[in-house]
Design a protein that fits this description.
392 residues; 5 strands; 5-stranded mixed sheet
Amino acid sequence: MDPRSLTPALRALRVCLHLLMAGLLVLAAVRADSAAGTVMAAVTGAVYAAGSYLPSVRSSQRAAAVWLAVLGASWLALLWLTPEALWLAFPLYFLQLHLLPTRWSLPAVTLTAGAAILSYVGHGAALNPGVFIGPLLGAAVAVATVLGYQALYRESERRRRLIEELIETRAELAAAERHAGTLAERERLAREIHDTLAQGLSSIQLLLRAAERVLPPDSPAAGHIGRAREAAQDNLAEARRFVRALSPPDLEHGSLAAALERLCEPVTGVTPGPGPRVRFSASGTPVELPTPYEVALLRIAQSALANTVRHASASRAEITLSFMDASVTLDVVDDGKGFDPASVRPSSDGGFGLPAMRSRAESLGGTFTVESAPGQGTAVAVSLPLPAGATA
């Protein structure tokens, strides 16, 4: 574990471990029966202090294993000289469990407990249950404490990463909502400009043209009417440029047919499993449609296809764009599980929904129909009358 990540409580535990080790070494040195025992206690303390201050011991398992081996050897030598070194086994348990991986630390703890028991017996102490229970119980407490803390630490880290992911996801959702709101506002403005300014300027231009036809050629008002008609024509062209600039990005780099064809490509990645195979086809002679027509047809296709992917459990779907003599039609058909159109209610999650698709089509003077039945797939069809002046 990175020492920089230690909490104040863990730093306090480290200090307590250092103090416990120092106190037990002092006890072993004072109770030693020989000068060699005192010297070995000092050597063990020096080895422990060196490892505590070496950064490599905390950052490298190899360096930690080497340091623990040297510390264990000095402890065994001290244990050979004085039985009081037995008590040092307890802090050694924690060091081994903390610095070594589990596959190494558990055998190391077992060997340390065994060495403590054997040293106690080797120094001639009388055999009793406490000789075996004490070191083994201490080892069990150390193992349970350290492994329990490690489990809690891993769970805490998992929760921390989960919280970070949730925060990132929330930020992404907020950005997506802002983007969706921006697109919706652009569409609304484009529709409003087309339905009010552009249509009004077009009507003014037609009226001025009619006025020009009924005026005598030498009328003083003819020049003014001509200039007014030209101004209306220029402003109409400017309004149409605004509408094109506010159109959806899907329509900025190609025709409606190309946008609908691109719409079929990413469908398989919308759901966890494989999505339906979607095919696009066009029939008839394409004509240039006003931007509101293209926007409406594209949005209806997007919404209908989204419903197919999310709810229909379909294996195949087809989008068909047909140009006829007086109308343009869009059909979205799937082979999914179908539904009863009469039982449809507005979406609770604020989705586009069938009523909104119908409203969009009818706002342009078109018709919107849904044909479906449980187990028989779904067909969504929208038909818009071609505006006057639409050209191939």
